[in-house]
Write the structure tokens for this entry.
Amino acid sequence: MSNTSDRIATRNKDDKWLLALLKEAQNKAGYISEKAMAEIAESLDMTLSDVYGVATFYSFLSTKPQGRNVIKICQSLPCYLRNYQTIAESIKNEIGIKPGETTPDGRFSFTLTNCIGACDQAPAMLINDDVHGNLTPGKISEILKAYK
Ligand code: FES
């Protein structure tokens, strides 16, 4: 019988593998499908609900198909204090979708996220891997034009 530290070590190892497999599934398909989650659960001898819980916990993972360009607006405290809400509203007005949605043409997906490491440029957002900071509502239209 294993002791508590053995169980914790095993659990940490499983979580590391789980995250790696979820990232791999997302890189392959652009999102993590139910089928992929079921395969991962079986391969790690975990329940589907445990895998689903992790896949939906991290903002960098998605269980829904994503647009070609993924906009992630930071909502953590420094960006909150610099009024990220007006940036989110500008994006919503510009592309016609709310956080959690994808445009019908598949051009953009739009989500809120936690700190992206650009606090000194708050309010900030990512579009794919590009950081855009010191945002104002007036900059949004021009920035989005670069993403087809
Ligand atoms: S809090 Fe927004 S980038 Fe860090």
Q: What stands out?
A: The two ends are 57 Å apart (CA to CA). Helices lie at 4-29, 34-43, 48-57, 77-81, 84-95, 137-145. Residues 74, 76, 78-79, 115-116, 118-119, 122, 124 surround FE2/S2 (inorganic) cluster (CB under 6 Å). The chain has a mean pLDDT of 91.
